[in-house]
């Protein structure tokens, strides 16, 4: 007997299913999705390297370290390259050929001024690697690279705003680019990258000294006459030439730091054009020229006899007018303090109001005072002139006529040399100089001064102090 139908309406089940199947075949059915092969962004070589035991991986030819001259965080990035097989030890290399990196050995292949892509580089000229290899292999030179890289931050401030990993990426890209450059060059060499405005930064000789120490070349044994520094920062002036009847302009160099470094260490300086292309030298100029400030030897330890300042009043105010780094504080301690003047200085008192308060106290007690501030404009000086009138004392002005480039030099010398920095002052930012020179108006007797005493700069110190001061510290 046939099983009963499950259709409650009594109709045939097979008929109903057949109708549904027919209806479904009348509709368009989308084809199944095509399976696509996934492509990884990771190269097969990288995958293979990842799974290769460390003992079987090729040795990294460039080894990176970081350095600091004191207990502060490191600011010098050092990459030492050793080709496969190492370096032959039979030659004692005392001639050093030092090179800048950007716009000297390499440029960007994209044409950008600065490239972030580690692959965005090419040789400054096709002859560069061949020339350096020949200097190393045939001429006995030690080849090193000394580069200012202020755009790199080795140890970011944890409290600084902005992306935390941006600095790390720039450092990583720089290392990758340099490793590629050194690998193509393929001779034993080291690149030194100064990332801060400290004693490593050119024209200061910190990187040079590190290179001498790393290669065990005592500085007094370097063949200075045979050594050379090649870099594009030579202080060259702008030049206009005629090319096919049209004027072509060549821009001036952005600084003179490479030429000044060569001067500091006592070696020859050449531009890339002179060294690699044998082009004739171009004219150059320094914003600050040490030749204008030679050491004046008093002879046999005699005291300098010139009188720069005399006390002509029983009680008075002496107002300094001069830029940061002009030597105002040194002038006070050497010439006014011995005459019984008390010092008013905003760096120590922290506010202008406190300066006036302290000055009034000294005047009420019968003291003479020296106002050791910059006082660039007549409006600011007028307040001190009014204070003098209120206390019925004369006011004199000592005007330090010092050019900006010299002040910046003095500021760098002071900040980077503890023996010449008794007040432990830090280097000043550019805004400190910009602010003074934008507001500066020459002081005159008409403002209410008893007289104005101009002071020109002259190095006044010992021979040992001049050995420090008489180097280039700014570009």
Automatic annotation (TrEMBL):
Segments for region (Disordered): 1-81
Record-linked Pfam families: AAA_33 (PF13671), PNK3P (PF08645)
A molecular function (GO) term: polynucleotide 3'-phosphatase activity
SUPFAM superfamilies: HAD-like, P-loop containing nucleoside triphosphate hydrolases
Gene3D superfamilies the UniProt entry points to: HAD superfamily/HAD-like, P-loop containing nucleotide triphosphate hydrolases
GO biological process, one term: DNA repair
Domain of life: Eukaryota
Protein name per Swiss-Prot or TrEMBL: PNK FHA domain-containing protein
Organism in which the protein naturally occurs: Xylaria flabelliformis
């Amino acid at each position: 007997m046939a099983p009963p139908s499950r259709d409650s309406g009594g109709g045939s089940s097979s008929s109903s299913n057949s109708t549904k199947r027919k209806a479904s075949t009348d509709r368009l059915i989308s084809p199944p999705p095509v399976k696509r092969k996934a492509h990884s962004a990771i190269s097969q070589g990288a995958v293979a390297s990842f799974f290769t035991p460390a003992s079987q991986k090729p040795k990294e030819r460039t080894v990176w370290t970081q350095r600091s001259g004191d207990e502060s965080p490191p600011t010098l990035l050092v990459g030492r390259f050793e080709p496969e097989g190492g370096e032959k030890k039979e030659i004692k290399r005392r001639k050093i050929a030092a090179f800048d990196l950007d716009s000297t050995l390499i440029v960007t292949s994209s044409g950008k001024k600065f490239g972030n892509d580690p692959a965005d580089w090419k040789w400054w000229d096709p002859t560069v690697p061949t020339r350096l290899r020949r200097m190393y292999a045939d001429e006995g030179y030690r080849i090193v690279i000394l580069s200012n890289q202020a755009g790199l931050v080795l140890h970011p401030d944890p409290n600084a705003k902005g992306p935390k990993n941006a600095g790390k990426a720039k450092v990583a890209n720089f290392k990758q680019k340099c490793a590629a450059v050194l690998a193509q060059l393929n001779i034993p060499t080291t690149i030194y990258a100064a990332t801060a405005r400290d004693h490593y930064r050119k024209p200061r000789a910190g990187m040079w000294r590190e290179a001498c120490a790393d290669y065990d070349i005592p500085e007094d044994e370097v063949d200075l006459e045979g050594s050379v520094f090649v870099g594009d920062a030579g202080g060259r002036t702008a030049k206009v030439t005629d090319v096919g009847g049209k004027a072509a302009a060549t821009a001036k160099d952005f600084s003179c730091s490479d030429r000044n470094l060569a001067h500091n260490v006592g070696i020859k300086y050449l531009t890339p054009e002179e060294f690699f292309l044998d082009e004739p030298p171009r004219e150059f100029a320094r914003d600050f020229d040490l030749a204008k400030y030679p050491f004046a030897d008093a002879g046999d330890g005699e005291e300098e006899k010139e009188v720069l300042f005399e006390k002509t009043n029983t009680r008075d105010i002496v107002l300094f007018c001069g830029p940061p780094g002009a030597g105002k504080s040194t002038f006070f301690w050497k010439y006014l303090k011995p005459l019984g003047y008390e010092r008013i200085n905003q760096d120590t008192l922290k506010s202008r109001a406190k300066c006036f308060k302290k000055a009034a106290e000294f005047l009420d007690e019968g003291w003479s005072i020296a106002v050791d501030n910059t006082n660039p404009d007549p409006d600011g000086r007028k307040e001190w002139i009014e204070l003098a009138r209120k206390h019925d004392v004369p006011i004199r002005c000592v005007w330090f006529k010092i050019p900006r480039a010299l002040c910046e030099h003095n500021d760098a010398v002071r900040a980077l040399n503890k023996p010449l920095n008794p007040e432990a002052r830090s280097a000043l930012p550019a805004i400190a100089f910009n602010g003074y020179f934008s507001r500066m108006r020459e002081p005159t007797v008409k403002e209410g001064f008893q007289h104005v005493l101009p002071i020109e700069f002259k190095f006044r110190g010992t021979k040992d102090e001049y050995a420090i001061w008489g180097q280039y510290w700014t570009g």
